[in-house]
């Protein structure tokens, strides 16, 4: 755009995002495939600067990440809330696979 003499500032980009962002996000969501009815839930401990963090991840059988929860402490109630929110947003799966 600079080649053509068009000046693009940070403010112009902010205005474009404000104007077209919701429309683009809607198109992206509509283009997504519906998740399969088999979900895989995984819990991983990650150490960052010597501090343990827990990462919960939900994926469908096609490999699409459905949701992620990252916390600095292990909390069973938060994990149950994570699954309940996922079911509320995506519907109830046929089966949930975990590492028990």
Describe the protein in words.
With 100 residues, the chain is of the alpha+beta class. The chain has 2 domains: 30 residues, no CATH class; 60 residues. The mean pLDDT is 89.
Q: Which strands sit side by side, in order, in the main sheet?
A: 3-2-1-4
Q: How would you describe the oligomerization state of the chains in this entry?
A: single chain
Distance between the termini: 54 Å
Structural class: alpha+beta
Question: Tags for this entry?
Answer:
100 residues, alpha+beta, 2 domains, four-stranded mixed sheet, 2 helices, 4 strands, 37% helix, IS_Transposase, DDE domain protein, DDE_dom
Layout of helices and strands, plus pairs?
Elements: H1 10-31, E1 38-48, E2 51-60, E3 65-71, H2 76-90, E4 95-97
Parallel strand pairs: 1-4
Antiparallel strand pairs: 1-2, 2-3
Protein name: DDE domain protein
Domain DDE: 37-100
Organism: Pseudosulfitobacter pseudonitzschiae
Concise structural overview:
With 100 residues, the chain is an alpha+beta fold.
């Amino acid at each position: 755009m600079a080649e053509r003499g068009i000046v693009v500032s940070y403010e112009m980009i902010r205005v474009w995002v404000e104007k077209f962002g919701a429309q683009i996000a809607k198109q992206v969501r509509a283009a997504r495939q519906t998740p399969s009815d088999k979900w895989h839930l995984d819990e991983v401990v990650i150490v960052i600067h010597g501090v343990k963090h827990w990462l919960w991840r939900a994926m469908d059988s096609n490999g699409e990440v459905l949701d992620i929860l990252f916390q600095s402490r292990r909390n069973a109630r938060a994990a149950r809330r994570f699954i309940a929110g996922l079911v509320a947003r995506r519907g109830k799966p046929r089966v949930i696979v975990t590492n028990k």
